[in-house]
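Subject: for your reference before the review

Hello V.,

The reviewers asked for a structural picture of the protein, and I figured it would be easier to keep everything in one thread rather than splitting it across files. Below is the amino acid sequence we used in the manuscript, unchanged from the supplementary table.
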Amino acid sequence: MTKRLTTLTLAALMGTAALPAFAQSKGDITLGFGIHSVTPDGSNSRTTAGLIDVDANIRPTLTAEYFIADRLGVELLVAWPFEHDINLVGTGEVAKTKHLPPTLSLQYHFTNQSNFTPFVGAGLNYTYFFDDRGVGPLAGTAVDLDDSWGYALHAGVDYAFNEHGSLRADIRYIDIETDVKIGGAPVGKVKIDPWVFGVAYVHKF
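And here is what came back from the structure prediction:
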């Protein structure tokens, strides 16, 4: 009988240890401190000035998520300003720009029996462009990129190493398109549409 009780106790303890260590409940708040790369999808945008290509850039990021229900959270992504080189295919770098891409997403975190917790999300992105300027052949020429609204998709996984802390790897796709003017004249729309790859430390309060 004692042996049976001991076996049942050990099984219960093992079952408890296998429960997700980073389960999210209604009212929880998490903060994520990470680094992300905004990587345009690589397709060139055709404008009246020619084909435009935008380079990738890496910056620190911050996320805050509030759980409106168990496993369901609303997340805000903010970042240090990203800076991109803008290239005219066949000519080289012709402009630079900076942008802030705050993104608000609704996210669902799956339950499982391990410390790995995958999640998916979707939401809205607003991209604010600033400090646009011409360089190289366009040095001294006014360059202007309009702000952008678009959808955003998000997926990733958290690995919990204790009740409050986890490491996150994630990927986003953000719909960013901007109307461009050179010297005050519209030249067309540039599609940035980046994949955003990153890692972060996430702390639950």
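For the response letter, the relevant points are probably these. Residues 26-204 form a domain with the Porin fold (CATH 2.40.160.20). The chain has one domain: 26-204.

Happy to draft the paragraph if you're swamped.

O.
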